[in-house]
Sequence to fold (747 residues):
Amino acid sequence: MSKAALADGLCHALSTSRLRAASSWRNPGIASLNRQWNLPIHHARALQADAPQANDEPFRKQLKDEARRKRQAVRSTVKDGTFRSSVGKEKDARLAKWTLTVGLEIHAQLNTEQKLFSTAKSSENGEPNTNVSVFDLAFPGSQPELQKATLIPALRAALGLSCKINRESRFDRKHYYYQDQPAGYQITQYYKPFAIDGRVTLYDHDGIAIEDGHSVDIAIKQVQLEQDTAKTNLQPPSTAFLDFNRVGHPLIEIITHPQIHHVQTASACVRKIQAILQAVNALTTGMEHGGLRADVNVSVSPQGSENLGQRTEIKNLSSFKAVEDAIVAERARQIAVLEAGGVIAGETRGWTLSSTETRKLRGKEGEVDYRYMPDPDIPPLFISEDLVNHLGTSLPVLPDSTLADLTTNSGLTYKDAKTLLSLDDGERLDYFDEVRFSCTSKRVSSHEPWPALDKMVGNWVLHELGGHFNAASTPFTPSRVPAESMVDILASLHQNRITGTTAKRLLAMVFDGDKRAIDIIIRDEKLNLDRLSREEYILMARNLILENRDKVHQIQQKRQMGKFKWFVGEMMKQGKGNVEASKAEAILKELLGLD
Amino acid sequence: MFEKPSWSVKSLFESDKSSAAMPAITQKQLHHLLRLSALPLPASEVQEAKMIKDLKSQLKFVQAIQQVDTEDVEPLQSIRDETKEAEMENEITVRTLQKDIDKEEVVGRRGRIRRRTDVPAAATDKRMKDWDPLAQAPKKLGRLFVVDTAKD
Fold:
């Protein structure tokens, strides 16, 4: 029998069988195949790659660390009701006798045009010592002039952290001598800060320690306004080169209550606070670029003890990893001292990236007495309720809400949602929203559940489009592939007018500068999907099966699924762009008797 | 009647209580205070003894001041207008910051705020236009101040 005759026979047989089988959709095999046939075509899973992002190294590291810890947690065993990780059993036994307590003091540079008490520009770009006023250099007789616009990002930050805003707050002087502080004191808000009693909630997806469960609330004691110091470049042995551009730049200091008890939770807290500040446009830049620094207070106390131990302060940690490593090192040091019968001295310690132990910066001998006093030159600050209300109601959506929306309503994974949130200063997320909204409003598919569509948009905006920008090493702009073009490509794909491979090709063409409308490109380049019928799929599949009996054997008997993928690939090759991967898979599964 | 003064501040420096009531000031304390104030340590024993004596009488003065009953009195931080009217005049409202709020725009569909790109940056303060911060620097390198931190 010729192939054509076979095909005809199949066609006839299948069409009659289809008529007969109208009532047999209840037959699970055929029904599932039918369902599969109607699913939107996602681009081949095998080709979906996780595009590495150029400048979110720390975030990718966080995701990797989380994945590793989850794997370790799975490996741990429950014995006598206590968790024991299979890694470092001895170390854990020792640590289990002590409770760690950590408090954070985070300094964040506010996003303002001018400094806190002078009209000098707050920009750090440009020539050294150009954005400096007489007051910044503490010339005798110079007076502070509060730049009220500073309150806008400051209040937004405090509101983002759910703080209560004090109507009246005051400024104090904190005295100490250092070459980066011309006045000999820093203006801060020690006695009466402008915001108090806030909180930040950390969830397991924020990367908190497994021991902290699903979520943990960290209370924030206060948020206060203060000045930044100059940039010092130390040349050994004792020369310092000073750039005063940064002196007087507004900072907020966020002080948490000592409620953190696990190392990963501490770094997760810093990360979360940074994310919130970025979302409300309060930060100039992130920790990676020096816009945010953390001081950490660490103490240990015997397990079960009511009182906290003596704390030490580790200053100027400038990365999330440094926060974790410094706490681990300091905890180990304190436990070693206490177990040897010693006593912890309340001192300030420092940490450098390649260290294994914190080192003492200032001890009791040189202990600094800051001699806090109210600054008599600065009148009290009065913040009106209408300003607080205005900024509160117009506050941008916070990361937790966006994350919930993206994962629940748009069906993205936590990983993808967080990536989307953190890329390109929010521009990637805006682009995603535009494309998604257009897809929805264009009624691309009126009977399709939205989550499926959003997931596709998410994949394409994050991985496909992201991959192009990465390969080209250029920063993301929403105009390179206009939202409309992206919508057209995805619509065509979704309506099965083109295959996944073609869609990717179209994206590449538009990215590289093709300005034609998508429909025109499809028509001119003849990229339309010639829909193969089910019969043609079956024919192709059967031929392949007949010609490769040994591979079939390996799949059916030995479950070597790699060979199965080979069949799919072969069909796609033979189909020359007209074979859809998911349909090929479905047919092959049916014919090979796989589930 | 006003020919002879009836009272002098000097009286507050004189002890009317026995000096045993006051703890001695140690050399360590004196040096600590001098370091905090970035003042040079005494050059000789005589000078140090004089410093401690002066400090003691100043502390007697402080003690006399501390005799005043300040129960329920808020400390004065500065002499300024503390009336309600002054407070309302100085409070920061939406109107106070309207110009700066107008320099921002909302983008995207989630209320994201950023500074508008079409608004020019704030003008440089006229008072600083012709002033070079480095003009008074005793030592500089290019546009950087140079400080010898060993000279403490």
